[in-house]
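WARN retry 2 of 3 for item q-0093 after timeout on previous attempt; input resubmitted unchanged.
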Amino acid sequence: MRLPGAARPLLPAIALLAAMAHAQDGERLPQPLGDVVDAAVHCYQVHARSGPLTGSVEVTVVVGADGRASAVTAPPGTHDRVAAAAQCVGVRLKYQPALRDGQPVPEKLVLPVTFPSLPELRGDLRRVVDYCHAPWTLENLKEGSVNLIGRVGTDGRIKEYQLPAGMLPWMTEATQCVAERLEFYPARLRTTLVESWVMVPLEFNLSYNRHYDAEVEPPRPRSDEAAILAAYRKCYPGGQTAMVTIQYRITVAKTGRVRKAELLESSGNASLDEAGACILRSLVFHPARRNLRDVESTLNWPLLVRPAD
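OK item q-0093 returned
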């Protein structure tokens, strides 16, 4: 029988009165104890490591007479990862069991579970990848792709990340660099900022198009002889007369300045090692170019460290 419109608003009140009458008669429905949100965050952190996890689902919980879940099922068609995480919530919670004739009895309960929204990337991912793709060498141009899975904190920075096994050293270094520099708008669960996991696909492609070869030009010195001589005079330590070639790993920024000069193997003389780094940081280069664009680059650079005169 279809109720008239005026009667429909009375249904919740009637249901409430009926529930109160049942309670007075020693009957009640099962109810969750504890914070469903806390349980959802815990289960999210466990299950989201294998990929993105968000959304809402209603699971059916069979609550035993002891107040524990004896079975938890998700609706047919629910994504496996969402279903597993939601079932985890149902199992983790404790419950006030149903009563019938004053005695605790097993009963079903429909439990709504909501997981956090996904973090949203801030800034230009391509710019970060370009910056971190700097460690390349002319003998072995490096390209590849990887899915970065990271845990984003409430401050929007990646706190922890997972890398696939068997990655090449250059890609591991580049991916770690990206993870340190990415920023996100953090996830929310209702109105609360929460930590969450996210997957970011990274493409380390020199050409931006896999069907074409990259055109790469290495960095080369731009400082003239006078500027080079001035750098030697400024940096070479007084009282020294040694002449030695030292291997460095330099990072040349798009501006042509040496942003970093790392010693690969010591000459055995710390003052000469530092003098070489000082000379390199004092020089100016034509930056490397990738497909006619100035790019930051990192490469090995041997330097002859000697007295200026």
